[in-house]
Hints:
It is built from ten helices and seven strands. By secondary structure, the protein is mainly alpha-helical. The radius of gyration is 32 Å and the shape is globular.
Amino acid sequence: MELAYIPSPSRGVWNLGPIPLRAYAFCIIIGVFVAVWLGNRRWIARGGRAGTVADIAVWAVPFGLVGGRLYHVITDYELYFSAGRDWVDAFKVWEGGLGIWGAIALGAVGAWIGCRRRGIPLPAYADAIAPGIALAQAIGRWGNWFNQELYGRETHVPWALHITSSEGGRVPGYYHPTFLYESLWCIGVALLVIWADRRFRLGHGRAFALYVAAYCVGRGWIEYMRVDDAHHILGLRLNDWTAMIVFLLAVTYIVVSAKKRPGREAVVEPGASDGPAEDASGAEADSAEADGAEADAKADTEVGDKAEDKAEPDAVEAKDEPESAKKS
């Protein structure tokens, strides 16, 4: 008898009349709102306009959803196009199945379109929303909990996930809650990026690259624990290989970018402001210093003028003295 475990929800769909309310979809929607909210705050802190992150998200989110679904369908095509399967199920996103790799890749295309329309550098935008994306993933993973999917190997640890459904080949039992592991890992990634960004003033896409690299580390060991069907290459799951390759690309980008473009962008959104708050404070200090220097220069000029005015009569008197002596 198990004394402690994580129970699975009895259902993941509630019907409001003819309208099904799916927990998986709600988790994704809540995650998107959190990402936009946090991204907006970070964007404003960097000197951008309020609302810009949401405007660009209108492009990035739909592209990301399509990309995530495409990656899942392509890498697990046998679930939809093999004998006895219905290809129409490939469009049923609400049943689960979004690949983060495809979501980020195609979502970046959508963000690039939105940034280009507003004259904003994509790397700066990516840096602002990076922690928000990690938090969105942390929230979205709870949709897998409602669907009783993407769990790990059998275990008897106190935090084991109790799977009760037998649909889709599931075997009821107690398994590693990999959805929970990844959710907690993503929260840690978000905190790491926020700290590193403040500590090292990351710019030109390096905060986003740090998010990608850190996520890949966690995804690698979590993916290794999962038992759902997946393609294997040389004994490793496809997503493990993807995580390793993307990790190397992200680290390479951080190193190369730091050498070629150190520091952070001075202006992230043309016409929004003169720069981030800290830069504005520095500008005010420089302005005050310049005003002080100007005042000192003015004072020196006034003193010099007074000295010159005083010296001029003395010079005239000194000039006249020899003539008076000659006459006498």
